[in-house]
Each structure stands twice: as C-alpha cells, then as structure tokens.
Amino acid sequence: MTTRPHPTTKQLLDQFNTEPDYSDASQDDAEALSRDRIPVRSLTAADFDAVVRIDRRTTGHDRSAYYRRKFDEALGESGVRVSVVAEQDGMVAGFLMARVDFGEFGRAATAAVIDTIGVDAAASGKHVGRALVSQLLANLTSLHVESVRTEVEWNRFDLLRFLDRCGFRPGQQLSLSRPLV
Question: What is the pLDDT of residue 179?
Fold first, then answer.
C-alpha cells in the first residue's frame, strides 16, 4: 500500500488562492474572457472604411462593393444585429460579420451564419479573432440561437485551424454547387 504525502500549507494556500483562467482555450469560448481583454462592440456604419482597409490588406483586393452590400444588410435589412468589431488602441483591429436566420431549407431552427471575419495583420496573434468569436457566441447564446455555422474554402488551413480551436466542427450538411458557365 502506498501513501500519499500530505500537502504542505503553501500547496493548500496555492490551491485556494489560484484564480481560474477563464480565457483558457479548452473552455467554452462563449464563457471565455478574451473578449474582455480586447474590447468588442457592435458594428456601425462608421466602421466601413476600417473593415475595407483590413480586408484589402488581407486579400490584396478592393472588395468595397461587397462590403457596401454587407453593411446595408447588417445595419439596415436585418432585424437582429450581430456583426461585431474589435478595437485595440482606439482603432478597429478586426471584424466579424454574421446574420441570424430563422429557418431555411425547410428547417425552422434558429441559426447564425458567419459571413466574413478579418483581423488586421498588425493585430494577428493577439487573440483578436478569438475575442470576436467569443463575443459573437455570447451574444447568440443570449438570443437563444441554436447554432452557428460558416463555410470555409477547403484549402484555407489557417482559418480551419482557428475555427477548430474555437469549437467549430464539420456539420452534417453537404454544400453542393454547379458551375453555370
């Protein structure tokens, strides 16, 4: 029979004085506090230029017409605004554009769809993306949204790894497409 040594007083005090790390990646992101370290707020019309700038730096393309449509949808057409931006030093450091669908393809389930996510290269690796997703998940949970989904190009391994770390898994639906030309 083996006996375990009794813990020292210091070990006992350390056990009770250790503050939990709620930003731990193994925890549920909706509960994580990475969003508290990086301010995340709702998207506004004033964020348009910053979003286009971040996207242009990331993709190398001017997609301002696309973002004009997405902003119109997010700020004018949607009854539920869920798109968010993250700030660092008073500047937009990242954005996440999403919408809530109240059923599609014959299903009546409430689901959110992430359309676009972007993080400024200067903020890369500073948990901006995680803060954006964390805040989105917290907002969607409070709205009683049942699930969130997105689509990713099959060879965007960096984005797939990020979404995997945020708890996303392959869904049960198969997306089909057919070229018309």
Answer: 86
